[in-house]
Design goal:
The chain has eleven helices and two strands. With 266 residues, it is an all-alpha fold. It has a two-stranded antiparallel ribbon. The N and C termini lie far apart (53 Å).
Length: 266
């Protein structure tokens, strides 16, 4: 009986998928379906699944990946793949691959960062502490959309959900740079300093030390060179006093602001 039911569902979905695919390519109907069509597909497919939503979502996922394309849209448009991913997630909210692979596909391949963010955020409602989802969603937030604050929160969750020390160090570096770029230099320093204290490899510890030197120098020199100086530190990260030349303070060592390099706007 279950086998017969599965066959019926497959046939019905195939018919619906054929209808949708031909309709989307028809000259009379826009290639980019809208939210009204999406809601209709939700109801229609849910009805046709006859209670087997997980199986339907798997079939739709397979079909989506088999017919995936690389046509690029822009932030104002939503491709058929976005709507298909949304449909799959509505049928099975725990379908993990939809969020991870679908998010990457929309962000990188289809060039739809806004749509990728919607999908990632839906996934993070179900898998809030998932390392890979947070890491990829954070990348999309900052490098594609310029949302530093949201990216920091997701990078922090990724940081706390991995045991790999090298990965932790890399993420802590990113968080510190994002925080510094957002004007949160003290937070950037504290977060990176925590990594500095537990790092045992001399070469890595030295590199982090240089980064901490730059952050502290920026904080201290901004304070020292104000007209009204309050609670300013007059020594750098390595304990050496800052120099006073031509009416202003400067560091003994060369340094540059600790910032992350953002991708150029497409």
């Amino acid at each position: 009986m279950k086998y017969i039911l599965s066959c019926i569902i497959i046939i019905l979905l195939t018919v619906v998928n054929y209808y949708n695919s031909t309709s989307l390519k028809s000259p009379e109907i826009s290639y980019h379906v809208n939210e009204k069509h999406l809601a209709l597909n939700f109801d229609l497919v849910s009805l046709l699944c006859l209670g087997q939503k997980r199986m339907c979502s798997s079939l739709l996922w397979t079909d989506t990946m088999l017919h995936s394309d690389i046509e690029r849209t822009n932030d104002k448009n939503k491709s058929w793949m976005y709507y298909r991913y949304r449909l799959i997630s509505s049928l099975d909210p725990l379908f993990y691959s939809t969020y991870l692979i679908g998010g990457i596909y929309l962000s990188i391949v289809k060039d739809e960062p806004e749509n990728a963010k919607t999908l990632y955020d839906l996934g993070l409602k179900e898998y809030q502490n998932d390392f890979a989802l947070n890491l990829n969603a954070a990348f999309n937030d900052y490098y594609e959309l310029g949302l530093a604050e949201e990216a920091i929160l997701k990078y922090q969750r990724a940081y706390h959900n991995t045991d790999d020390p090298l990965v932790k160090r890399s993420i802590s570096n990113i968080i510190s740079k994002l925080s510094a770029g957002s004007g949160k230099l003290e937070f950037a320093f504290d977060f990176l300093y925590a990594q500095y204290k537990v790092t045992l490899l001399p070469s890595i510890k030295a590199e982090i030390g240089e980064q901490l030197y730059a952050i502290k120098a920026e904080i201290d020199l901004a304070c020292l060179n104000k007209k009204e100086r309050r609670n300013c530190s007059d020594v750098d990260f390595f304990g050496l006093p800052y120099l006073y030349k031509n009416g202003s303070y400067e560091a003994k060592r060369e340094w540059k602001p600790f910032r992350i390099k953002k991708r150029e706007t497409k």
